[in-house]
Amino acid sequence: MPTHSQLLANIANSMQSTGPRTEEGKAKARYNARRHGLTGQFYVMDDDDRQAYLTFETRLFSDLKPVGPCEEQLAVSIAQDHWRMNRAKGIEFNTMGLAHHENSGAIGADSAETETAVSHAQAWRSDNKAFANMALYEIRLHRIIRQNRQDLTELQTKRHAAEAAAREEAELFLANELSKQPAEPITEDSIQVNGFVFSIQTLFQEMAWHQTLAEARWYKSQNWNRTKQPPFALLTFPKAA
């Protein structure tokens, strides 16, 4: 792994780059405005930064799991503010790298580590207000992210509770239909309750699993005496076609 000094040296060397020279390279580095699929806003980024951000946002979305426009808006805000946080840290590192580049050879230190430390100290002393502003910026971003995460959690908690209640109603309806004698065949593929749509086959699988667990727990409490019958009726669930 490269040392901290080597990383700063790499940053300094990259600052001497003249940029892309070929037409293909210039086209790739050109800044273009693209509309965000969820927010509808234009963002000006080069292709590499845009792809990096989209990958970053997609990974956070897989963790946040937003559903619906309100949750998605909060998730986008969280992703963008985390991106800003990372960018602020990158600017701080690059500022130190710039100082190392500008002071290279002028400090006369006895080692590369000492030279890096002195250049960092000079960078901070020459513009410590900028570093203070970076810290304040990060604190504000932390506060905004925390509030948005709280709002998203509250929305998802309400949605999960409403979905659980709807699922319970759907299972009660199906259990009632299966308990009828003779039971009427259920031909629908899905059932909708309070705006939530559930696969009937998936509900049957979950209900069968819960019934099996309930039966097993009861027999365990009876020392696995199979001569007794559980105090609840056992339903027969249709098999998948």
Which stretches of 5+ consecutive residues score pLDDT under 50? none
| SSE run | HHEEHHHHEEH
Tally of structural domains: 2
Total DSSP E strands: 4
Reported for the largest beta sheet, the result is: 2 strands, antiparallel
Q: Rounded to an integer, what's the Rg over CA atoms?
A: 30 Å
* Strand content range: 5-15%
Shape: elongated
Question: Could you characterize the architecture of this molecule?
Answer:
With 241 residues, this protein is mostly helical. The chain folds into two domains: 4-11 and 22-161; 185-221. It is built from seven helices and four strands; from the N terminus they run ααββααααββα. It has helices spanning 4-15, 23-29, 47-64, 68-102, 112-126, 128-179, 200-221; strands at 32-35, 42-45, 190-193, 196-199. The strands form two sheets. It has a two-stranded antiparallel sheet with strand order 1-2. It has a two-stranded antiparallel sheet with strand order 3-4. Strand 1 (32-35) and strand 2 form a beta hairpin. Helix 3 (47-64) crosses helix 4 (68-102) and helix 4 packs antiparallel against helix 6. The longest helix has 52 residues, at 128-179. The radius of gyration is 30 Å and the shape is elongated. The model has no long low-confidence stretch (mean pLDDT 81).
How are the SSEs placed, and which strands pair?
Elements: H1 4-15, H2 23-29, E1 32-35, E2 42-45, H3 47-64, H4 68-102, H5 112-126, H6 128-179, E3 190-193, E4 196-199, H7 200-221
Antiparallel strand pairs: 1-2, 3-4
Helix pairs in contact: 1-4, 3-4, 4-5, 4-6, 5-6, 6-7
